[in-house]
Amino acid sequence: MWAQLLLLLMSLAYFSSVPRDRVWICMLSGSLQEVNSKIINFLSDLAFDDPWSIFFMTVFSPLGYIKLSSVRMQGLLLLIFVKHAHIPFIRDIHTHYTRTGLYGYWGNKGGVTIRMSLYGHMICFMNCHLPAHIENAEQRLDDFEKILEMQQFEDENVLNILDHDILFWFGDLNFRIADYGIHFVRESISNSRYNLLWEKDQLNMAKKKEAFLQEFIEGPLQFKPTYKFDLHSDVYDTRGQKTLFWFNGKKRKPAWTDRILWRVKNLSQHSSEDGNLSVGEQTISVTLNNYISHMSYGISDHKPVTGTFGLQIKPLFSTPLVTLNPEGEWNAAQDALISYSTVSEFPSSTWDWIGLYQVTFRHMNDYVTYAWVKDDEISSSEDVTQVYISADEIPHAGGEFLLCYYSHNMQSIAGMSQPFQIQPSRRSAEKELAQENINGIEKPHSPEPYDEI
To answer: Could you tell me which residues are beta bridge partners of residue 293?
Structure first.
């Protein structure tokens, strides 16, 4: 049995007066760049979800995705969204960040990561914002090496980033095109002869010399360099850069600053020219389906880059740790029962709980109500345990819901039920009928939130 997933990576350098260093990742199946990092916005986002998270949750939740995890370091943000079906098979979720700006004291540059176990395979996503300017190629490599060295995980088998089975590395990496003058670069771009520039791309040059980069794979750069553009246009930099004393500086030379690379542990040497990795006896395959930029976006001097990947993974386990179901038909006017069972090795805790969620829930804490598995337990046998939820906690209007078992020890959802219906209470049904009689007409259809967006 193989699990096939579609993975969408987006490296978007946004925008306005804030740093260009936000990436969102959507793990389909199975996330943006730029958050406003002014101090007021940053403090607000510590207490509440940032606007980009809210935006994507609004778009993705009706499609069956939830925000699995996120990590932020000043303007650098990484988001992961996952399809419901995969949630019980994702474990060991950890986040990390490393500052490299101002000698390691400032987070305007650096890297953030989210790692997890997906069907038993360790996967890591790393979003970086490396130093700018063409003369800082060595500094970019030094900072990337520092990020790799600094980020250590509490797992004896996967201690650091390069120990993961699959690693995706992306963001505003800031590598430029060396040697060639601006006129040759622009002429090559105008004639769509991008291959003339590949040899002098600083990242391609570094991959030939630096051993720690040689296992990273990237798709062909068959799109225009994504930096630097005039705002709200697809025209490369036409304005002189203002220097400290307000003299015009040189125009910026176009460059592929926004990149997406990946690395498969112990498989990179088997990659083919089209970016595919041969499975053979291995249990993981990564296929790059497309790698493109999006020229229509103009709110930044960068253009967004997306990569769509196919992941084929042979699961090391196929049974969720917890199986749970609603008992019988649920009615909002009555107490309800939940039955669940666990595998023998499941690390249960008295702090575990079962949440009742709408089917379009946005994230793990977006529950309607919950029951403690120990405090609200009413019966237990060797095979099945039952807990109850009071009718006072169930939404009177009813609707379509599902149940999720949250493991305190694992800090993740260990089991999820199939969607089920809750019948509205009689009072709620009578109130709705009376309201319809008053209105005399059916309620207008409310557009889905992503339709409005």
So the answer is: 305
pTM attached to this predicted model: 0.84
Give the C-alpha separation, 216 to 161, whole Å.
13
Handedness of CA 219, 225, 229, 232 (dihedral sign): negative
pLDDT-derived band at 24 (thresholds 50, 70, 90) equals very low
For residues 424 and 408, the answer to whether their CB atoms sit within 8 Å is no
Nearest in space to 2 (alpha carbons), one of 89, 87, 119: 119
Place of tokens 């829930």: 361
User: Measured between alpha carbons, how far is 296 from 232 in angstroms, rounded to an integer?
Assistant: 9
- Which residues are within 8 A (CB) of 265 and not within 5 positions of it... i.e. 6 or more apart? 162, 163, 164, 165, 166, 167
Q: How confident is the model at residue 76 (pLDDT cuts 50, 70, 90)?
A: confident
What is the DSSP track for 198-260? Answer: HTTBHHHHHHHH-GGGTT-B-----S---B-B-TTSS-B--SPPB-TTS-B-PPPPPB--EEE
Q: State pLDDT tens for residues 174-229.
A: 999 999 999 999 999 999 999 999 999 999 999 999 999 999 999 999 999 999 99
Which CA distances in Å does 398 have to 19, 150, 370, 420, 427?
44, 49, 16, 10, 11
Give the β-pairing of 76-83 and 22-28: parallel
pLDDT over 70 at 4, yes or no: no
Bridge partner list, 336: 389
Q: Cα separation of 286 and 120, whole Å?
A: 16
Task: Please count the helices (runs of H) and the strands (runs of E) in the chain.
Answer: 8, 21
